[in-house]
Structures are given as structure tokens and as C-alpha cells.
């Protein structure tokens, strides 16, 4: 009985012969691997052919004396990397531009016409490079920088006296008219324009009260005299 148990355990531990389903899976795996290898070889041939085509175009570009730069059609990331490598081997400068992956393209420049930072910024903004317009913008920036430097050297401007309105409007009304308009106004006594010193009351409070009482008694006497004359 023990021998039978030992034999059973040995048989159960041995690998079973592959079933039909396992054989089908291995066959599909071999076919898949063959297809992948074929695609890899095809992609490799395409890269080689694309590189040869780019080498021809770059060679034509180098021989074109009147062409300082060349823009290529949009291409994918792998093709752009191949073109960059071809340009570097040929001693050229290359840059990629474009916002999204589908529209990105490569521009190749000859060494003697290497782009400036302003030119690269224009291409990154999707604009055409205009040297005359760029020169005008550069001149304005330099002028602004010079003005700012001059202001810093002068330092802060000290506060000055207030402007005279005669000088402000002299170009409109003339010097004579400005002087005439600036004459000192004299007080008109007919309208009660008297100096402030003349308006000051120098009397004491007691003197003022006595004068008020005297005026009041005078009015009462006048009123009583008028009433007596009327009754007579």
C-alpha cells in the first residue's frame, strides 16, 4: 500500500503532456512574434530611407547659395530627431517650432546665418521674421534703456516752486496780457471793501453796553414825544 502511494505521488508530480489548447496558444505567440519582428524591420527600413532623403535635401540646401534657411514640412517626433541629426552632421543649426505635435516642423540654418534670439522668438510666436521691424523694435528698446539709465544717474528730481499761471498761459494770451491779468486788485470802498484793521472794535464791553443803552433810551424818548404830539 505504501508503494502504491509513493507511485501515485511520483506520477502526479510529473508534467502532463500538453493539451491541444496549449499548443494553439504557443502557435499564436509565435505568429505574433513574427509579425512584430516584421514590423520592426519595416520601420527600420523606413527610417533608413527617410534619412537618405533628408541627407539629399540638406545637401541641396547647402549648395543653394541664396538660401540662408529652409523650413521643412511638419513631421513626427522620430522624423524630426533624424533631421536634427542629419543637420548636425552637416554642420548646420536646426530648431523645431510649432505649438502641437501635428504641426511641429524643423527649420535648418546655415552657420553664417545662425538666427538671433529675436528671430527665434518670432518663429516661436508663429510670425515671419522681418529684420527691418526687428531693428526698429531694438532701437526703441535701446532708447528706452538709455533714458532710464540717464534718469537713474540724475537721481530724484528735487521739488521746485509752484508754477506761475502767467508762465503757464503766456503762450496763449501773450506776455502783456498775462501781466495785466496779474495786477493786484484794489479794494472798492463803494462795496465795503475796507481793511480788516478798520473793522476791529477797540471798545471795551462796558463802553459798548453803555452806548447800546443810550441809543435805546434815545429811541424811547423819541417814541414818547411822537405819541404826545399826536394826542394834542
Please explain how this structure is put together.
The model has no long low-confidence stretch (mean pLDDT about 75). Helices cover about 65% and strands about 5% of the residues. It has a 3-stranded antiparallel beta sheet with strand order 1-3-2, with helices on one face. By secondary structure, the protein is mainly alpha-helical.
Ranges where pLDDT stays below 50 over 5 or more residues in a row are none
Oligomeric state of the chains in view: single chain
Number of helices: 10
> DSSP strand (E) fraction?
5-15%
Euclidean distance between termini CA atoms: 176 Å
- The dominant shape is elongated
Largest sheet: 3 strands, antiparallel
Secondary structure category: mainly alpha
How helical, in percent, are the residues?
Answer: 55-70%
How are the strands of the biggest sheet laid out side by side? 1-3-2
Taking all Cα atoms into account, the compactness measure Rg is: 54 Å
Mean pLDDT: 77
**How many DSSP E strands?**
3
State the order of secondary-structure elements, H for helix, E for strand: HHEHEEHHHHHHH
Amino acid at each position: 500500500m505504501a508503494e502504491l502511494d509513493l507511485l501515485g505521488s511520483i506520477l502526479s508530480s510529473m508534467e502532463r503532456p500538453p493539451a491541444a489548447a496549449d499548443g494553439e496558444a504557443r502557435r499564436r505567440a509565435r505568429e505574433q512574434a513574427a509579425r512584430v519582428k516584421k514590423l520592426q524591420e519595416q520601420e527600420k527600413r523606413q527610417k533608413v530611407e527617410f534619412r537618405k532623403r533628408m541627407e539629399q535635401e540638406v545637401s541641396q540646401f547647402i549648395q543653394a547659395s541664396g538660401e540662408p534657411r529652409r523650413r521643412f514640412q511638419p513631421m513626427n517626433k522620430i522624423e524630426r530627431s533624424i533631421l536634427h541629426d542629419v543637420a548636425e552632421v552637416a554642420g548646420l543649426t536646426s530648431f523645431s517650432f510649432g505649438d502641437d505635435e501635428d504641426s511641429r516642423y524643423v527649420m535648418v540654418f546655415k552657420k553664417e546665418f545662425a538666427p538671433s534670439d529675436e528671430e527665434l522668438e518670432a518663429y516661436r510666436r508663429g510670425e515671419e521674421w522681418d529684420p527691418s521691424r526687428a531693428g526698429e523694435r531694438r532701437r526703441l528698446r535701446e532708447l528706452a534703456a538709455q533714458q532710464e539709465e540717464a534718469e537713474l544717474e540724475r537721481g530724484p528730481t528735487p521739488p521746485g516752486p509752484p508754477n506761475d499761471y502767467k508762465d503757464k498761459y503766456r503762450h496763449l494770451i501773450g506776455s502783456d496780457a498775462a501781466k495785466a491779468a496779474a495786477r493786484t486788485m484794489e479794494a472798492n470802498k463803494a462795496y465795503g471793501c475796507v481793511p480788516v484793521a478798520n473793522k476791529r472794535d477797540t471798545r471795551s464791553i462796558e463802553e459798548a453796553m453803555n452806548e447800546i443803552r443810550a441809543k435805546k433810551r434815545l429811541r424811547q424818548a423819541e417814541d414818547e414825544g411822537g405819541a404826545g404830539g399826536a394826542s394834542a
